[in-house]
Write a structure and sequence with these properties.
The structure holds 2 protein chains of 2 kinds.
Chain A lengths: L2 E3 L2 E3 L5 E2 L2 H5 L10 E4 H6 L1 H5 L5 E5 L6 H5 L6 E6 L6 H11 L5 E6 L6 H7 L3 E3 L34
Parallel strand pairs in A: 3-4, 4-5, 5-6, 6-7, 7-8
Antiparallel strand pairs in A: 1-2, 1-8
Chain B lengths: L5 H22 L5 H9 L3 E3 L4 E5 L5 E3 H14 L3 E4 L5 E3 L7 H9 L17 E2 L14 H11 L14 E4 L13 E7 L5 E7 L11 E8 L3 H15 L10 H8 L1 H15 L8 H9 L13 H13 L1 H10 E3 L5 E6 L10 E3 H14 L3 E4 L5 E7 L3 H10 L14 E2 L14 H10 L3 H7 L4 E4 L13 E8 L2 E8 L11 E2 L4 E2 L3 H15 L6 H8 L2 H8 L4
Parallel strand pairs in B: 6-7, 7-8, 16-17, 17-18
Antiparallel strand pairs in B: 1-2, 2-5, 3-14, 4-5, 4-13, 8-9, 9-10, 11-12, 12-15, 14-15, 18-19, 19-20, 19-21
Classes of the chains: A alpha/beta, B alpha+beta.
């Protein structure tokens, strides 16, 4: 699964993203290395996870209750936000609120991440994009610059056009 | 009107190329159908019953004559010689080739037009009062705020994939001509106790299968907070609006489910994070937006004695012009001027349709007599807002020569009608045959004038594109075992006294619609007291007498 960061393809992704079903079936947590777990699992096993002494992330989506996350993300190095379908835009607002709450590490887009939404995701606060192999083409990198101007503020420059 | 700067132009130019590439990838099979569907809708392109349909944005209904001529050119070159104005004051073309759409968009971009966000689950074209800036009962011209909203909402990165479509209307007059209470957000300019002008914010109005009047969640919003407050509403809606059922995904359902108080609390909580932030409008930005909507160079001599006498002569000698003057023109704020309404409801033509040559004719009239601008109304007509009284006769003659001067504004045949089953893939029933039937049945203009102001709106399906719920007489087409039937409701209003019509009873077959309307009007004529309008009678007597007459069995 190609991962884009800073509008480039990252070859080494150190993160292991663990899914709820595997964890529920007893799949072991790796002893070392950065891992991200679903936020439900994180809530249930927070202390054990924090004792691992490796970078920790969570995976969230629009159905999760995120109020606590905004208050308590200083322990996290990565927050992955899932887009369950092409038409589900909740992730954009979640990223926006995360940035606003001061989270400044990796915000990764997961799930239905396709070329035509990359620029919108970046403007909303995502800084990493995991794209399915079968959908990825190298020309995706051009998507970030298709529209070179914007009226709204972005994460990079929060000023709307009338304040620039 | 607003003039694009280099950034605005770059945005629409680049959007054309972006869509061209998306269309190319779709036609090559690289972009799946369901994704292209969402992407093309965000650019106003539907695939309809007959062909693709392209809906072009007309921000807050304002068109320059140059833009109107370009629309005529598009109709002539890429379509079948006509376009259709809608209740969102946009224009749609019914027969473009999919592969030609990027070229149409490139042509539109040459005159500062586009099709961005005229469909899809995003913030749609903001609408307003077609008489903004010239109406007599106006607190302030709403158009600068519409333009500010246009910029904020155009390609908004966070709100391009909302649970459903999202419509905003702004009104600056005491009389609500923008149907603001039946919008996802209605913004009504109001004055507070300190004399400041701001906005009352209504949320969760809308028609469709669940018609609801909007709820006021803030009585007074200072102007500088306009965008931050809208941002807060949209964010709450984006996160909390239902996504499991598209029929329950509109913000009105969320507001009803939470209750307006809880919805307000969520918005205010979100707003607290951003209310004094970067989105706070600056005085300079408000002044800049206002600078595009200054008064035109009115002729100080417009009200001179000669003009007055010439108008008086024409009114006295030409009965048809006299009727047009009384029904299709309105008082203007400036002495010596009138507002002239161009009726897009000619006899036996599809309401809202306009041909390429008619568009050219309107553009010429706008240039010659109305400072080069035209407005589209949510009643599917056009308006020349600034016509000198002394020019009205010439304007009328030119309109009449182009079949645009039917003196029926505000009467029964000034109907809002969606294109219905003949064009729309959502529709259950035909509408255009019924509007013809009504026109044929009520072809006596004196009878129509005697009936007075009556709003008849007709939708071909439950989605209510023609706002049938808020008409004096609302007609909804329904499909019963392959046959078209029509459900009739009475007593709705989209104005400041907004209310939903009540269903009269069982639906009537297609052959009986005009006859049924005739029975309804007969009850009105029987019941009315002096100067009482149809709406007032329905309010006073209720729908029972109408029901009895319509469903009376033959003796």
């Amino acid at each position: 699964m190609p991962l884009l960061i800073d509008q480039r393809i990252v070859t080494e992704d150190p993160w292991q993203l663990l899914d709820q079903a595997a964890l529920d079936e007893g799949s072991p947590i790796p002893e070392n290395g950065p891992i991200a777990v679903p936020i439900i699992w994180y809530r249930q096993h927070r202390e054990a996870l924090q004792q691992r002494n490796s970078p920790l992330g969570v995976i969230v989506n629009g159905d999760d209750d995120l109020a606590a996350l905004y208050a308590d993300h200083s322990q996290l190095d990565l927050i992955a936000i899932e887009f369950p379908t092409f038409r589900d835009g909740r992730g954009f607002s979640i990223a926006r609120q995360l940035v606003r709450s001061g989270f400044n590490r990796q915000i990764r887009a997961l799930g239905h991440v396709t070329r035509d939404r990359l620029a919108l995701m970046q403007s909303s606060g995502f800084n990493a994009f995991a794209i399915n192999d079968e959908r990825f083409q190298t020309d995706h990198l051009q998507a970030f610059s298709e529209i070179s101007v914007n009226y709204q503020g972005t994460t990079a420059d929060p000023r709307p056009i009338f304040r620039r | 009107m607003y003039q694009y700067n280099q950034i605005d132009q770059t945005l629409v130019d680049e959007r054309v190329e972006q869509f061209r590439d998306q269309t190319r990838r779709f036609l090559k099979g690289e972009l799946p159908e369901d994704e292209f569907s969402a992407l093309r809708l965000m650019n106003g392109l539907y695939i309809q019953r007959q062909a693709p349909m392209l809906r072009v944005a007309v921000p807050y209904g304002l068109l320059s004559s140059t833009q109107m001529r370009k629309l005529a050119h598009v109709a002539r070159t890429y379509d079948r010689g006509y376009g259709h104005f809608t209740t969102r004051t946009n224009i749609q073309f019914n027969w473009p080739e999919l592969a030609a759409v990027p070229d149409i968009l490139a042509e539109l971009a040459q005159v500062q037009m586009h099709a961005i966000q005229t469909s899809g689950n995003c913030i749609r074209n903001t609408t307003t009062d077609p008489y903004a800036g010239v109406a007599e009962n106006e607190l302030e011209d709403p158009r600068p705020y519409c333009e500010i909203i246009r910029q904020w909402s155009t390609l908004h990165p966070e709100f391009a994939y909302l649970p459903r479509k999202f419509k905003i209307a702004v009104t600056g007059a005491t009389e609500d001509r923008a149907a603001s209470q039946v919008h996802d957000i209605g913004l009504q300019m109001v004055q507070n106790a300190d004399g400041e002008i701001g906005f009352e914010v209504l949320v969760g109005g809308g028609l469709g299968r669940t018609p609801i009047i909007g709820k006021s969640i803030r009585k007074f919003l200072p102007k500088q907070h306009l965008l931050s407050y809208l941002d807060a509403i949209l964010r709450v809606y984006n996160l909390k609006g239902r996504r499991d059922n598209k029929y329950k995904a509109r913000i009105k359902i969320l507001v009803e489910a939470l209750g307006p108080d809880e919805f307000r609390r969520l918005v205010e909580e979100e707003w607290a994070h951003i209310r004094d932030g970067e989105l706070t409008l600056t005085d300079a930005e408000i002044a800049r937006a206002k600078s595009f909507f200054t008064l035109p160079d009115y002729d100080a001599n417009a009200a001179n004695a000669d003009a007055h006498a010439s108008l008086g002569d024409s009114l006295a000698t030409d009965i048809e012009f006299n009727a047009w003057y009384r029904h299709n023109t309105l008082a203007h704020r400036v002495d010596g001027y009138r507002i002239a309404i161009v009726s897009l409801k000619p006899y036996l033509e599809a309401p809202g349709d306009i041909t390429d040559s008619q568009m050219d004719a309107v553009a010429d009239l706008a240039d010659r007599y109305s400072f080069g601008e035209t407005r589209a109304t949510h009643h599917q007509n056009l308006v020349l807002t600034d016509v000198r009284e002394g020019d009205l006769y010439a304007v009328w003659q030119a309109l009449a020569a182009n079949n645009l001067a039917r003196s029926n504004i505000g009467t029964l045949t000034d109907m809002i009608v969606c294109p219905g089953f003949d064009f729309c893939s959502l529709a259950n029933a035909r509408t255009l045959n019924i509007s013809d039937q009504i026109n044929e049945h009520f072809d006596d203009m004196d009878h129509l004038y005697d009936l007075g102001e009556i709003r008849l709106n007709m939708s071909g399906c439950i989605n209510a594109c023609a706002h049938h719920h808020v008409a004096d007489i609302g007609i909804l087409g329904v499909d019963k075992k392959g046959e078209d039937w029509y459900q009739i409701s009475l007593g709705g209003s989209s104005k400041e006294d907004a209310r939903l019509g009540k269903i009269l009873g069982r639906s009537v077959p297609a052959s009986d619609v005009a006859l049924t309307v005739e029975k309804i009007l007969a009850v009105y004529v029987d019941q009315r007291r002096e100067n009482e309008s149809f709406a007032q009678v329905v309010l006073r007597v209720g729908i029972k007498p109408f029901k009895e007459r319509v469903y009376a069995t033959a003796h």
